[in-house]
Amino acid sequence: MPLPELQMKAPHFKGIAVIDKQFREISLDDYKGKYLVLFFYPLDFTFVCPTEIIAFSDRVKEFKSIGCEVVAASCDSHFSHLAWTNVPRKEGGVGDLQIPLLADKSFSIAKAYGVLNEQTGVPYRGLFIIDGKQMLRQITVNDLPVGRSVDETLRLVQAFQYTDEHGEVCPANWKPGSKTMKPNPKESLNYFKQAVTLHTDVGDIKIELFCEGCPRTCENFLALCASDYYKGCTFHRNIKGFIVQTGDPTQTGKGGSSIYGRKFEDEFKDEYKHTARGTVSMANNGPNTNGSQFFITYGPQPHLDLKYTVFGKVIDGFEALDELEKLTVNPKNYRPLTDTKINDVTIHANPLAY
Is position 49 annotated as part of the catalytic site? Predict the structure, then answer.
């Protein structure tokens, strides 16, 4: 039988399961009002299967804490399931489990969910996320050799629950606490646009970030902003007509680190060039050596293209940029004679917000 369809009622099931080493009849009806992860595995007493079952069982509290239950199913008998739970994990069994093992000896459930290999009588590794209204929200089917991810399954349940509650949509790699999107053309653009305001001694400078094109660079920059990393950083290098540089908490021009615990890779894009006053780029010591320092250009600098990652542009506060350019500097190292600092940073979800 083919796979069931998403956004349709999940196929009903009823059968004997092993729960706490006891036989108990369970059905889909038992899970009304809750999310349910139903996953099929090929056979008891095999190799990949116990790793999956144990992994889900050991983390079932995380699912239960968000109103989600987990059931594992195969076409073995409930007697086989029970025997398997009586074998210690170190001997290839599954031991004590916190999730039901559903027996589908008649193959009817695996057929209804479209995961049965009719020639072998063994189900593929199908996983189904069913919501509280018993609608199918997610379907994945792995071939036999590869197990599934508990982390990804939990993330998907959390994402569907978030969309249910808030009516927004979750972009790629979404995790709880990450940004979501409004499901319409105009408001969805806000997801791809973020900005920060640098509150400096000479005024505010607002920077739009190119999060879509330079995700890792912007993730690093935003995380540093959010942690007050840049608070108190001086503009330690200031060359009139060229750039002003900051982002080093050691104030030496040689310090600073990324959130990744190492120097990270450049993110060059053809559409992001040093074409105008107010271009914001990462400072580096060569290819793929980005950390925390960044600079703002005082004018077009095409010779910097494809050498320094452009990750934003100034959209407001050019008067403050003018004041920075006027600062008197030491001609030997271009350091302003009067320390000029970033006093604070405000993060905006929308560049048009104040």
Answer: yes
Q: Which is nearest to 121 in space by CA: 188, 76, 70, 179?
A: 76
- Reply yes or no on whether the pLDDT at 193 is more than 80: no
**Three-class secondary structure of residue 316 per DSSP:** strand
Compute φ and ψ for 85, nearest 5 degrees.
-70, -20
Give pTM, 2 decimals. 0.61
CA–CA separation, 172 and 170 (whole Å): 7
pLDDT tens digits, one per residue of 259-293: 999 999 999 999 999 999 999 999 999 999 999 99
**Structural domain tally of the chain?**
2
Yes or no: say if 110 and 127 are a contact pair by the CB < 8 Å rule: no
The DSSP-derived string for 212-230 is TT-HHHHHHHHHHHHTTTT
Whether residues 265 and 339 fall in one domain = yes
pLDDT of residue 350 exceeding 60, the answer is no
Catalytic residue among 49, 170, 211, 214: 49
